[in-house]
Each structure stands twice: as C-alpha cells, then as structure tokens.
C-alpha cells in the first residue's frame, strides 16, 4: 500500500511513523522548510488528562500511554512531571469528568492539595491534574523525525485528484499516485479538503504566546485559567527560568482581517498588562510563538473521509498526537472512518 500524508506537523509525523510501523510505503509532503514549523513549532506544550468530558479524559489517557511509549523508544521522558492546574470556567465539571474516567484528580483547598503557582492572584478554587505536565516539543520532533523523517518530501501539495484506483497528489515539482491520502495539513487543510468535497473550518485567527523570566525558579505546574471576570489564559514553564503565557482575547482583536502585526501587538499589550497585575514574573517579553489556529474549536478532533482521502482537524492536538497517529494509520489501512471514541478501543 502507498500512502501520502500531507503535512509534517506533529499529527502528520505521528501518522507517518504509525504507517511505517505497519509496513506501509509513505510519502509525507511538507511545504515549510522544516518539520513541525507551523502550529507544532516551538519547544513546549501542555499535556493534561483534565478535559471537560469523561470521553475526552479517556482519549487523553490513551495519549498518555502513547507518550509513555514514545518516551521509552526515545530513551528520555517527553512529558514533564509538574502537573496541571485548571481553574475558572467549569473546573468542577472537569474534575467530575476526570473522576468518572478513573483519572487521579485533586481539589486545591480540599484535603492536602495546595495550589502552587507563580502568581500573586490565586484562583478561589481549582483542580490539580497530577498527570499533567509540559511536553518537550524539541524531543518529540527529534523522535518523530528519527522514526519517519526519511519519508518527508519538501514540497507543497497543490492539488488532490481522486481517481478510480486512488488519489493523485500534485505538487509544483510533479505528481505521485497513492492508494490513500491522509490530510493533516493544519492551516492548509481546508483548502485541500474542499477539493475532495469535505468542508472543514476555514476561518483562521492570529495567536501569540509570550515568554517571561520567572522571578522564583523551581518546577511549577502548568495552568489553564478561565476566570469569570477576566482574560482566559494557559500558562506553563517553557525553560528552566521562563514562563509562557497564551491568552484568550476578544476575537475582534485577533481576527484574520486585523493582520498579524496588529493582532500580535494587541495580544502583547494585553498579556503584559496581565503579567504585571497577576504574575510573579519580570514584566518583559523574552520570547514569542506565533501560530494561525482555527478559533473556537476547543479540545478534541474530527476525522472525515471522502473516498481514499482521510481528513483530520481540530485544535490543541499536540497532547493527543500519539492517539491521532495510530487512529489515522489504522483507519487508512482498514479503509474505515474513525470517530474520536474509536481511540478507546484497544
Ligand atoms: C502557541 C501555541 C500553543 C499551543 N498550546 C498547546 C498546548 O498547550 N497543548 C496542546 O495539546 N496543543 C497546543 N497547541 C496546539 C497544537 O500545537 C496544534 O494543535 C498541533 O501542533 C497541530 O499539529 P498539526 O500537525 O495538526 O498542524 P501543523 O503543525 O500546523 O502541521 C501541518 C503541516 O502541514 C503543512 N502544510 C500545510 N499545507 C500544506 C500543503 N498544501 N502542502 C504541504 N504541506 C502543507 C504545514 O506547513 C504544517 O507543517 C498550541 C499551539 C500553539 C501555536
């Protein structure tokens, strides 16, 4: 079987590795000069079991096992041990979902669990996910490139032409015929999916995560905060003495039409103000990580099929990449269309 994977982000590379493990001949097309250079760029992401529903928690548990397998293969831990705090929003519902799925969860202030965060303003209540932590993105990139890097072709896919016996993949440099295609092209997915009749979210927004020097060194938990009367944030340690903060701004400030520069400036002003008021960090930005997400998708993913083409999309996919890779590879070989719940059937 010959399969083309479009996109060498974390999802495309995980799928490529899982297909190669099944003995499939794979070409993974990537338009950027390097793998994991768009939404999967940077050096860190949050892993958490904490999610809004028991099914999502269970899918994250499968991902946790996947990261443990990748860590064993790589000979180094790919996910840190700091834990993850979730506060604001529906955190109590998230805690109940974790308990229902059998995941360990602690409630700060009830029992021995104590909230430790590099912040002056601590939330009134929160859950602590002891399985959460920071994913070492550089180590994941190295591992996935070691597993499947030789399959990567540095070409931009211009068109997908389905035929009676498979799909022709056209690039600026030529074309190739494949039995099946997995489309995992991140921000490039909707344009190619439309060519095979699949509609996926196409609206993009600007998002920037900012890094600050920590005032108190140490191992801090990651933190997701959705206060009722303030800006939603996700935060985590992304280096020995640094703290990364991403924010949920008014969508009007980060809409695609606003432009990258204006959206980035508005984000920086808001996050700096927040850092000054609430965090135990030096209020100066020492790092920026930009990406163009589809706004409003939240956790989880969708997989759709048109003939021999499988399309995967979603947001916050890094933590679930081992699950997506296995699911997409298995479904490609079987010719099936998996739902997220199928990740739970092992
Ligand atoms: C700042 C930031 C913070 C985040 N925090 C978290 C977090 O804490 N936890 C978490 O789980 N997730 C987080 N995410 C989201 C997560 O990183 C992404 O969901 C995930 O990396 C997406 O991977 P992907 O492979 O789907 O997309 P991408 O990494 O974007 O990969 C798609 C690839 O396809 C390529 N491509 C596109 N079109 C074409 C084409 N026509 N031909 C060839 N190649 C093409 C692109 O160049 C790209 O490399 C964060 C994202 C950002 C940017």
UniProtKB/TrEMBL annotation:
Q: Which residues form a coiled coil?
A: none
Pfam family example for this protein?
DAO
The FAD dependent oxidoreductase domain extends over 2-329
Cofactor needs: FAD
Per UniProt, which keywords does this protein have? FAD, Flavoprotein, Oxidoreductase
Q: Which InterPro entries match?
A: FAD-dep_OxRdtase, FAD/NAD-bd_sf, MTOX
Q: Which SUPFAM superfamilies does the entry link to?
A: FAD/NAD(P)-binding domain (SSF51905)
- Gene3D superfamilies from the entry? D-Amino Acid Oxidase, subunit A, domain 2, FAD/NAD(P)-binding domain
* Listed PANTHER family: PEROXISOMAL SARCOSINE OXIDASE
Q: What is this protein called?
A: FAD-dependent oxidoreductase
Q: Which organism is it from?
A: Pseudonocardia aurantiaca
């Amino acid at each position: 079987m010959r399969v083309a994977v479009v996109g060498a982000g974390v999802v495309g590379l995980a799928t490529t590795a899982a297909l190669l493990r099944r003995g499939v001949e794979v070409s993974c097309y990537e338009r950027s000069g390097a793998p994991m250079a768009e939404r999967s760029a940077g050096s860190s992401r949050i892993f958490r079991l904490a999610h809004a529903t028991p099914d999502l928690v269970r899918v994250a548990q499968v991902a946790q096992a996947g990261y443990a397998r990748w860590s064993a293969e790589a000979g180094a831990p790919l996910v840190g041990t700091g834990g993850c705090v979730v506060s604001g929003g529906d955190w109590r519902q998230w805690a109940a979902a974790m308990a229902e799925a059998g995941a360990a969860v602690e409630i700060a202030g009830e029992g021995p669990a104590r909230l430790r965060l590099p912040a002056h303003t601590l939330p009134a209540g929160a859950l602590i996910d002891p399985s959460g932590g920071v994913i070492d993105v550089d180590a994941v990139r190295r591992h996935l490139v070691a597993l499947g890097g030789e399959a990567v072709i540095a070409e931009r896919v211009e068109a997908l032409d389905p035929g009676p016996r498979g799909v022709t993949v056209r690039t600026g440099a030529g074309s190739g015929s494949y039995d099946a295609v997995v489309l995992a092209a991140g921000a490039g997915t909707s344009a190619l999916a439309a060519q095979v009749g699949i509609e996926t979210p196409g609206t993009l927004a600007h998002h920037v995560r900012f890094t600050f020097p920590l005032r108190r060194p140490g191992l801090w938990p990651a933190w997701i905060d959705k206060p009722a009367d303030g800006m939603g944030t996700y935060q985590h340690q992304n280096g020995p003495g640094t703290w990364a903060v991403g924010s949920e701004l008014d969508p009007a400030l980060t809409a695609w039409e606003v432009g990258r520069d204006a959206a980035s400036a508005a984000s920086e002003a808001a996050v700096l103000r927040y850092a000054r008021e609430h965090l135990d960090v030096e209020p100066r930005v020492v790092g920026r990580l930009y990406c163009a997400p589809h706004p409003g998708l939240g956790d989880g993913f969708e997989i759709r099929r048109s003939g021999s083409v499988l399309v995967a999309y979603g947001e916050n996919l890094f933590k679930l990449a081992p699950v997506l890779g296995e699911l997409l590879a298995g479904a490609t070989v079987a010719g099936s269309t998996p739902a997220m719940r199928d990740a739970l059937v092992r």
